[in-house]
Design goal:
This protein is of the alpha+beta class. 31% of the residues lie in helices and 27% in strands. It has a four-stranded antiparallel beta sheet, with helices on both faces. Strands 1-2 form a two-stranded antiparallel ribbon. Strand 4 and strand 5 form a beta hairpin. Bound molecules: coenzyme A. The site of coenzyme A has 20 residues, from helix 1, strand 6, helix 3 and helix 4.
Length: 166
Amino acid sequence: MNYGRILLTNNKIEFSQRKIMVLKLRPFVKSDIEILYQSYLEYIQYLKSIGINKSPPSFKAHQEFILKFLDNYKNHPYKKIYILEDDGNFIGNICIKKSNEFGYKILNKFQGQGFGDKMFELFFKKHPKNELWASILPNNIVSQRFLEKHGFELTEYEYHPKNYSK
Ligand SMILES: CC(C)(COP(=O)(O)OP(=O)(O)OC[C@H]1O[C@@H](n2cnc3c(N)ncnc32)[C@H](O)[C@@H]1OP(=O)(O)O)[C@@H](O)C(=O)NCCC(=O)NCCS
């Protein structure tokens, strides 16, 4: 949805088209599989940039995992997968496991614009904050700050053997 508006800047009158945000947190559907994969690949790249090497799943493995969520929910670790969209455009995703651990991602191009905050606000309306927990890798300072901003605190460290792969 768009609306026009007159801006008065530096004594010049300009006409600007400014978009009204129509943010929605909706359940994931089958046609989101590809964009969710892109989002996950971006996350793997981000981890690499902070010194954590994790190999990405193949698209096929990702697809099977997600389809299992839709087709065999009883035996899947996830409780819900949500998509944050603005006027139909994918902005990010947030999911919660049956254990109440949650994970999230805003697409790189939309980061730093307040979408993460908005996504959390919408998510906490569906899942009360006091039942949730998140697991964040040591170098992921951005996410640690983000969680702290939203009222979470560090409660424990987890130790694994050096070559441990989840
Ligand atoms: C964490 C993440 C969701 C934040 O989304 P975002 O839309 O960029 O965040 P916002 O613009 O809404 O900013 C919210 C807060 O996040 C923190 N934050 C965001 N960018 C930051 C940065 N570059 N450095 C430090 N803190 C940052 C700040 O606390 C910020 O609040 P402030 O602006 O009032 O200081 C996003 O960086 C992301 O997708 N990261 C990769 C995925 C990830 O690490 N997931 C966690 C593991 S499951």
